[in-house]
Amino acid sequence: MSVNTDEILTAAIQLPESDRLAIVSRLLETMGDEEHLPSIDDDDFVEEMRLRSDDSSGAVPWSQLRNED
Questions:
Q1: Does residue 3 sit in helix, strand or coil?
Q2: 8 Å CB contact between 62 and 31
Q3: Number of domains observed in the structure of the chain
Q4: Rounded distance, CA 65 to CA 69, Å?
Q5: Of 11, 28, 59, 60, whose CB is crowded by the most CB atoms within 10 A?
Q6: Half-sphere exposure (CA, 13 Å, Cβ side) for 67?
Q7: Burial class of residue 45 (count of CB atoms within 10 Å of its CB; 0-12, 13-18, 19+)
Q8: What is the DSSP letter of 39?
Q9: How far is CA 60 from CA 15, 19, 56, in A?
């Protein structure tokens, strides 16, 4: 059985917040260059993720965010 991205996202959204944050953290770890990755314990980062998940129209690619200082 093949699972697509939308199915994974739908299932993940139904998880408790702590599990969703754990998934975000684990996915970010796969992005490489860890010195540019935000800490999942950073309250500002968590709030930004909440805002972005509510409004995907202003989404910025990870490659662009990773290069911002």
A1: coil
A2: yes
A3: 1
A4: 8
A5: 28
A6: 4
A7: middle
A8: P
A9: 24, 23, 9
Q: Which long-range contacts (CB under 8 A, 24 or more apart) does 44-49 make?
A: 46/21, 49/24
Q: According to the model, what pLDDT value does residue 55 have?
A: 65
pTM > 0.85: no
- Going along 1-60, which residue ranges are E strands? none
The structure tokens listed for 55 are 């409004």
Residue 11's domain spans which residues? 5-67
CA 54 to chain centre: 12
pLDDT tens track for 14-56: 998 888 888 887 887 787 666 666 666 778 877 877 777 666 6
Please enumerate in sequence order all residues whose Cβ is within 8 A of that of 52, keeping only pairs 6 or more positions apart, or say none.
Answer: 58, 59
Cβ proximity of 23 and 15 under 8 Å: yes
